[in-house]
Amino acid sequence: MATIKAQPDDRTLMVFDRQVLDISGWADPHRHHVWQQPRLELTDGKPARAHILCASGPRHGFPYDAHRRPELEALAAALAEATYPG
User: Fold this and answer.
1) Average confidence (pLDDT) per 10 residues, the chain, 86 residues
2) Which DSSP letter does residue 10 get?
3) pTM
4) Measured distance CA(73)–CA(40) in Å, rounded
5) What pLDDT score was predicted for residue 45?
6) Cβ neighbours of residue 11 closer than 8 Å, sequence gap 6 or more
7) All domains of the chain, ordered by start, with CATH?
8) Are 16 and 2 in contact (CB under 8 A)?
């Protein structure tokens, strides 16, 4: 399966290789492993916001550019399909 990339804004990059979700561009980079069961939720509004929620681990919320929603939805779907083999 292919790596999924999404860019919520011009400064942030999210990369999911089906095992780890890497987020760079914030002050601190973040990594979420599949065993943490990360999921991405999107909300509309001004500003539109994205939320990364993990069953085990941290939570993050950040604004995203509304025109980039389709690539974020693709990432959210890939995260929802991912399963931890353990």
Assistant:
1) 91 95 86 94 93 87 94 96 74
2) T
3) 0.90
4) 8
5) 87
6) 25
7) 4-81 (2.30.29.30)
8) no
